[in-house]
Amino acid sequence: MGVGIEVTTLNAWYGTNHTLQDINLNIPANHATALIGPSGCGKSTFVRCLNRMHETNPIARVTGTVRIGDLDIYKDCKPVEIRRRVGMVFQRPNPFPTMSIYDNVCAGLKLNGYSNRRALDEIVEKSLKNSALWDEVKDDLKKKSGASLSGGQQQRLCIARALAVDPEVVLMDEPASALDPVSTAKIEDLIFQLKAQYTIVIVTHNMQQAARVAEKTGFFLNGRMVEFDATHKIFTNPSDKRTEDYITGRFG
Amino acid sequence: MEELTERTEYKMRARLRALADGTATGLAVLATILVVAPLVAIFVYLVYKGASSLTWAFFTDVPKPVGEVGGGMANAIYGSGILLTVGSLIGVPVGISGGIYLAEFGRGTKLANAVRFTADVLNGVPSIVMGIAVYSLIVVPQGHFSAFSGGVALGIMMIPTVCRTTEEMLLMVPNAVREAALALGVPNWRSVLAITVKTASPGIITGCMLAFARVAGETAPLIFTAFGNVGWNSRLDEPIAALPLQIYVYALSPYDDWHRLAWAGSLVLIVLIVLAVSLVRYVTSRGVLKGAS
Fold first, then answer.
1. Which residues on A lie below 8 Å from B293 (Cβ)?
2. Which of B11, B141, B191, B218 fits a 20 to 30 Å CA distance from B75?
3. Would you put residue A22 in left (φ > 0), alpha (ψ -120 to 50) or beta?
4. B98 close to B90: Cβ distance less than 8 angstroms
5. DSSP state, residue B51
6. What is the rounded CA–CA span in Å between residue B159 and residue B148?
7. What is the ipTM metric for this complex?
């Protein structure tokens, strides 16, 4: 089941560059929340703060609190623990090139010491079915490399890999921006289904996409969150002038 | 009229481009031939000079005393095998570990820069100097030449090549792959070993093979360490024969029969190196999946 995310006065830096400034945000459980905004506005940095990937960059720094479910992720636990509970899908599909499809899906479990074969088989099947890839790959699970799939299939494989560790939240950083329209539609359908089980945060450049998949949308600009509201409100009747300018295409 | 000149000009340019293209391709082909030709020439000459002395006895007998015809290099082939095994057992793990440190853990640190610099200098140290160094560090304190000291000398020579290629290959692994592993909640050390190193392994293996092939033909570092041996020896604490040493001794001798054996030995050395490298490539390429890059 998904859990909600509560962000309070989150600030983040890359070196001296203050990329996120005083972000306050409540992301509801079991919904899809979209983050939109022009390039460099801090959307990606923001989601990377939600699973502590931000700090893998040696010059990065972060302050503030992020509560995921009942866990204060910067206080109560180590980065590896929170990353197991918060899955991430990246902009470019990044399957492990030397691993088979099967090994890609269960990589997170295997590398964390999980080795029950029968359970792994089940998890792999379930995750691939959840990511709508099972029918396309079930015959070459262990024969083909993850890198041999098409771009869209690779991205669904990466989603399956993230789902296999049974997270509560799935972060998606522009998951469809490197894909063609057909693959994009598949990913969007998938997000729709996944909402039932997971809390989803999706960063996107594509405003129609945000409108299609998300109940809530946040608009970021220059490291600040300008507006956060129900998606239909953001797109039809935004309360901030800057949001309106952005969604009507006046800048960005 | 104007259109016409434009068209002729276009044709002229097209012809120039075709000419430039042809020249560049021709130069590339020429360079390829220049690269391959010496290898082919050496190999053909070795076969021509050495093949006639390649009898069964060459692979089964030890050298005969001076004046007697015949004899083989069985002990030297075996000795080279032992020396290279000891060398690889030292050079490969130390080199790979060093490379992993440079690329994954020590990036940008002073220690890493020092290690990298040391490796590059070590790579440039003449092999005879390596022999003398190991001689004074191991042979002199122990009081005798030994297979072990020879293996150490070869191993140290392998380290820089293995270390630097490992680093280069690891740096070629896209950051996205590292991030994918970290985002799954895999601890960094585990991600490095199970994901990054595995992804770079074909290149790392090539580096090891390169180092192996290079030291397999080394004579100088063995002169003061393994020393050579006319008989059989399987003990690490005694002098041992090695193919390059034996070739060196026989080639410098005044006997025609020994010269022929030296040619044959050179041929065997090259063939064995090629075989060893191919074997490792074959073994490590099995189990690679369809479509893996």
1. 97, 145, 147
2. B141
3. left
4. no
5. G
6. 16
7. 0.89
From A72's Cα to the closest Cα of chain B, the distance in A is: 17
Report how far residue B161's alpha carbon sits from residue B136's, in angstroms, rounded to the nearest whole number.
Answer: 24
Residue found by looking up tokens 């479509």 in the block? B291
Sorted by sequence, the CB contacts under 8 Å of residue B250 that are 6+ apart come out as: B258, B259, B261, B262, B265
Separation in Å, CA of B100 to nearest CA in chain A: 18
Q: Are A36 and A57 in contact (CB under 8 A)?
A: no
* Kind and range of the H or E run holding A61: strand A60-68
B18: alpha, beta or left? (left if phi > 0; alpha if psi -120 to 50):
alpha
SS3 state at A23? strand
| Closest C-alpha among A180, A179, A7, A186 to residue A86 | A7
Q: What is the pLDDT along chain B (293 residues), one digit of tens a residue?
A: 566 677 888 888 999 999 999 999 999 999 999 999 998 999 999 999 988 888 888 898 888 888 788 888 999 999 999 999 999 999 999 999 999 999 999 988 999 999 999 999 999 999 999 999 999 999 999 999 999 999 999 999 999 999 999 999 999 999 999 999 999 999 999 999 999 999 999 899 989 999 999 999 999 999 999 999 888 888 899 999 999 999 999 999 998 888 999 999 999 999 999 998 888 888 887 766 555 54
Chain B residue whose CA is closest to A141: B289
d(CA B93, CA B83) in angstroms, rounded, equals 16
One-letter amino acid of B115: V
In the 3-class helix/strand/coil scheme, how is B133-202 assigned residue by residue? HHHHHHHHHHCCCCHHHHHHHHHHHHHHHHHHHHHHHHHHCCHHHHHHHHHCCCCHHHHHHHHHHHHHHH
Interface list for A 137-166 with B (CB within 8 A): 140, 143-145, 147-149, 158, 161-162, 165
Q: Which of B150, B127, B145 is nearest to B81 (CA)?
A: B150
Written as one letter, the residue type at A174 is: E
The answer to whether the beta carbons of residues A120 and A165 sit under 8 Å apart is no
List, in order, residues 6 or more apart from A122 with CB less than 8 Å away: none
Contacts of A87 in chain B (CB under 8 A): 183-184
Are residues B260 and B53 in contact, defined by beta-carbon separation less than 8 angstroms? yes
Contacts of A229 (CB under 8 A, 6+ apart): A216, A217, A238, A239
CA-wise closest residue to B227 among B155, B289, B134, B293: B134
Beta-carbon separation of A145 and B292 below 8 A: yes
List CB contacts (< 8 A) between A145 and chain B: 289-293
Number of H helices, E strands in chain B: 13, 0
Buried b (16+ CB within 10 A) or exposed e, A75-84: eebebbebbb
- Residue A15: phi and psi, rounded to 5, are 60, -125
Contact A111/B176, CB-based, under 8 Å? no
CB of A167 closer than 8 Å to CB of A84 = yes
